[in-house]
Amino acid sequence: MHVASPIPKKRARIEIIPLIDIMFFLLASFMMVSLSQTHMKGIKVNLPAQGAPPTTVTKDYVAIRVSPGNAIFFDGQFVQDDQVLPRLFQLHSANPNIKISISAEMMSTHGDVIALLDKVRQVGIQKVGYQIRAAPPTTR
Length: 140
Fold this sequence. Notes:
This protein has about 140 residues and is of the alpha/beta class.
């Protein structure tokens, strides 16, 4: 005679999600432990000291600003109008690939800027940029 059990019979199931969580936790734990145990060891070496060679700094960028009244400033330093061309020749001879950035103040004339650009081109400088600012809004 076969008697049925009052306890329902369940099949065993293996849940994979908790196992994945445990494996990631163990992996992270082992990585942290192994990183904390790494010690960088080195040998101290006395290297010979050498005097630094004299550095010759060649300028590769010059900002030129034109102010009202044809006042010209090279990197913030005022230069007389008759000294602009020799100064440009000097900069070009020191570095043939020098870059020039030309900017003008609000009340300076267009002709002064073009005259400066002609001098820059006369010297042979090819890399010229312009700094342009938006005009302030006018109130009505």
